[in-house]
UniProtKB/TrEMBL annotation:
The protein, known as: Multiple sugar transport system substrate-binding protein
Signal peptide range in chain numbering: 1-27
Key words, A-Z: Cell membrane, Lipoprotein, Membrane, Palmitate, Periplasm, Signal, Sugar transport, Transport
Record-linked Pfam families: SBP_bac_8
Subcellular location: Periplasm
Keyword Transport tagged: yes
Matching Gene3D superfamilies: Periplasmic binding protein-like II (3.40.190.10)
Domain of life: Bacteria
Organism in which the protein naturally occurs: Bradyrhizobium japonicum
Lineage: Bacteria, Pseudomonadati, Pseudomonadota, Alphaproteobacteria, Hyphomicrobiales
Record has GTP-binding as a keyword: no
Family stated for the protein in its record: Belongs to the bacterial solute-binding protein 1 family.
InterPro entries, alphabetized: Bact_solute-bd_prot1, SBP
């Protein structure tokens, strides 16, 4: 559903005509169009709208803001590109994963170096790197996007359910094999015996329409040190070691399903579904590419539209019952280096008001504006600026501290930042398709991996 907000108020066309005779300067006032993915929480959208009001008051430039559901942003943007009617500024959580690299390669994105270069020292390096992409028209790399926020992988656990199953947090193994065996062979039978309910130890996202599935599988690949491309984007999948480690990662990922430790429906899950299963307490743990699961309960605790009992339940869940944790050690005993997905906004070369669009971006990225927007997401997004990362917000509770620790421990970029054709593979979700070949079609893991490698070579070679 489309939500449209016209900032501080762009008056109706009729009103402009009414005052044109007496106020010609008003009639000539600049207006920029901004398309933005709708926030997960109202506080995100409120912070964005407040920044827009401040920008309008300072510059006299009017902002026409249209917000859309994330799943609608790519189709709408593609249609606008085809029609030549693009917005002046656009942001979607899905741009970087599904389209930005391709659009940069094709010369459809405006170079934002003049915006980013003067302020780059304020940003953490990995977020800058994710915004520097190759343009095959100009034959150069540049800032074809501006970094706004980032996300990474976390594990969410119901500690009260773990205790009901007869275990405590200190019982969770830290070695790779022992960790997954613990949830399947100990916690799941324990919680079922204690409750008499068909509860699953793990929520393992596997749906082809789920970004959680490919992001989670990347973590399994990273546990096995799978490197699909080099820093220049050249494929490495012909290396026999890559194949061997891919087999290990896919076997471990699908074994959870084959052993009956994740709900049968997880093969068709979309992104919200593991959250829903967790909230409904039909699973004890899941891995998720933000802490939106925990943050939902925090939001409940603050929501004055809920009853006091519901707010208290939210507070207890957030502060006591839910734990945000990390993955175990990799199979070789090393610590997994998590992927960071840096979310970026764009200006298209076909935009009509590029100078004013860049003014807006520069204003938005000022610390006093970008920080309330990121923190309005209640920990779901991590900042891209050094100053915001040092904000007390990230030390306020155990969940945010866990996020802070993972990011400051060092992250790696996704392959699509090095080879844009991986956005096609992500759109297809070849990773989840390989999982489903194994669990639904009973294809041997090694054959599914060979098919996966062949598709990677066909698309990204």
């Amino acid at each position: 559903m489309r939500s449209k907000v016209i900032g501080a108020v762009s008056l109706a066309v009729a009103a402009v005509g009414l005052f044109a005779a007496t106020a010609p300067a008003f009639a000539q006032q600049k207006t920029i169009t901004v398309w933005w993915g709708k926030g997960f929480y109202r506080s995100e959208d409120d912070a964005l709208i407040e920044t827009i009001k401040k920008f309008e008051a300072k510059t006299g430039i009017k902002v026409e803001l249209s917000q859309y559901a994330i799943q609608d942003m790519i189709p709408k943007t593609v249609a606008a590109l085809d029609a030549g009617t693009v917005p002046d500024v656009a942001y979607s959580d899905s741009y970087d994963v599904q389209a930005q690299g391709k659009w940069a390669y094709e010369g459809k994105l405006e170079d934002l170096t003049d915006v980013m270069e003067p302020i780059k020292d304020r940003f953490v390096q990995n977020t800058l790197d994710a915004s520097i992409l190759y343009n095959d028209v100009t034959k150069k790399k540049a800032y074809y996007g501006f970094p706004l926020k980032q996300q990474s992988m976390h594990v969410e656990i119901w500690n009260d359910m773990l205790e009901k199953a007869g275990f405590k947090l200190s019982d969770i193994p830290t070695d790779w094999a022992g960790y997954w065996t613990f949830w399947c062979d100990k916690v799941q039978p324990g919680i079922r015996k204690a409750t008499g309910q068909r509860i699953y130890g793990v929520g393992q996202p596997m749906g082809v329409e789920s970004t959680d599935a490919f992001q989670s599988f990347y973590t399994f690949m990273d546990a096995y040190h799978v490197k699909l491309v080099d820093d220049d984007g050249k494929l490495l999948v012909d290396d026999p070691k890559v194949r061997e480690n891919l087999i290990g990662a896919l076997k471990d990922y699908t074994d959870t399903y084959i052993k009956g430790c994740t709900p049968p429906s997880s093969t068709t899950w979309k992104d919200p579904d593991n959250n829903v299963a967790f909230h409904n307490k039909t699973i004890v743990m899941t891995h998720n590419f933000t802490i939106s699961i925990a943050a939902k309960w925090f939001e409940d605790s603050q929501n004055q539209a809920l009853t006091q009992e519901q707010r208290d339940a939210g507070k207890k869940a957030y502060e006591q019952d839910i734990v945000t944790a990390s993955f175990p050690k990799a199979p070789d005993g090393s610590t997994i280096r998590y992927r960071s997905d840096v979310k970026t906004g764009l200006v298209f070369t076909a935009a009509k008001n590029k100078a004013e669009a860049k003014q807006f971006i520069s204003f938005l990225l000022q610390e006093e504006n970008v920080r309330p927007y990121i923190e309005g997401a209640l920990g779901r997004w991590f900042p891209v600026t050094k100053e915001s990362q040092a904000s007390p917000f990230w030390q306020a509770d155990k969940h945010r501290k866990a996020v802070y620790a993972q990011f400051t421990g060092g992250t790696a970029a996704f392959d699509f930042t090095k080879n844009w054709k991986f956005t096609i593979l992500n759109n297809e979700n070849v990773w989840a398709k390989a999982m489903n070949r194994v669990v639904s079609e009973k294809v041997p893991v090694d054959k599914a991996v060979d098919e996966l490698i062949a598709r990677i070579k066909q698309v990204a070679g």
